[in-house]
Amino acid sequence: MKKQLKGLTVKSIEWLSEVHILLKLHDEANSMPEVVAGQFVEVKVENSQKTFLRRPISINFVDYKENDLWLLVAVVGDGTKHISELKVGEKVNVMMPLGNGFPISNSTEECLLVGGGVGIAPLLYLGKVLKDKGHKVTYLLGSRNAKGVMMMDEFKKYGDVLLTTEDGSLGEKGFVTNHSIWNNKKFSKIYVCGPTPMMKAVAKVATEKNTECYVSLENKMACGLGACLCCVTEDKNGHNRCVCTEGPVFNINELPWQI
């Protein structure tokens, strides 16, 4: 899939929580490239004396009717802080689409999409693609508390939404792996994105239930092109895999988590 450098215009920027923004970028050239759910972009950070490299951000959603790209961004450092300070009408230099996304079957399946924290980002567009292809979508989203729950109205457009919070302030109390859905339903496929401990825990449950499972790794990716090798991870055979070009999505059977 051909990569593009695009100058996109900030259409809107909204704070969804104390540390998360939803950035909507518009393609005035009406030439938004085809995106596979699970791919990411590299955003150039302008006017920062501390940020020299682009910032990798998961693609949250693509609205081809409006020619808009949505990015859900966790504001955690100088680079993302500068991104959060963008103004409507400003231009943003974006390299896209990057990486390999989630594989989707042509036959109808019951799919469970599990996300935690900002890891929910790629699951919104994935849910739309799955629904459009006739699959049944269930979201299982986890957060520390109710304040961290985001974009529920959007997720509900594409599937049933189940929630867990660590403090029990919304949904079922505990982690995503504690939710009662695991005891009540069997899924054909599981897709996961979030903190590594959460993904490993879900992968363990998927293995126990003999369910096909894919995870989106969130390794640090400086270039997005496989040149810098800072995102390399080791697979179950001890071989180095470049997450930005061979991933970020991997079948859990490729990873050493279950050994």
Break the fold down into its secondary structure elements and pairings:
Layout: E1 4-15, E2 20-26, E3 40-43, E4 55-63, E5 68-74, H1 78-84, E6 91-98, E7 110-116, H2 121-132, E8 136-143, H3 152-155, E9 160-165, E10 172-173, H4 181-184, E11 189-193, H5 196-208, E12 212-216, E13 232-234, E14 240-242, H6 243-246, E15 249-251
Parallel strand pairs: 7-8, 7-11, 8-9, 9-10, 11-12
Antiparallel strand pairs: 1-2, 1-6, 2-5, 3-4, 3-6, 4-5, 12-15, 13-14
Biggest β-sheet, characterized? 7 strands, mixed
Strand content range: 25-35%
**H/E series:** EEEEEHEEHEHEEHEHEEEHE
Count of helices?
A: 6
Sheet with the most strands: spatial strand order: 10-9-8-7-11-12-15
Determine the mean pLDDT.
93
**Total number of β-strand segments?**
15
Runs in which pLDDT lies below 50 for 5 or more consecutive residues are: none
Structural class: alpha/beta
Helix content: 10-25%
Distance between the termini: 33 Å
| Alpha-carbon Rg, integer | 18 Å
Q: What's the overall geometry?
A: globular
Give a verbal description of the structure:
17% of the residues lie in helices and 34% in strands. With 259 residues, the protein is of the alpha/beta class. The strands form three sheets. It has a seven-stranded mixed sheet with strand order 10-9-8-7-11-12-15, sandwiched between helices. α2 links the parallel β7 and β8. The longest helix has 13 residues, at 196-208. The radius of gyration is 18 Å and the shape is globular.
In short:
This protein is an alpha/beta fold and 259 residues long.
Relevant terms:
alpha/beta, 259 residues, seven-stranded mixed beta sheet, 6 helices, six-stranded antiparallel β-barrel, 15 strands, 17% helix
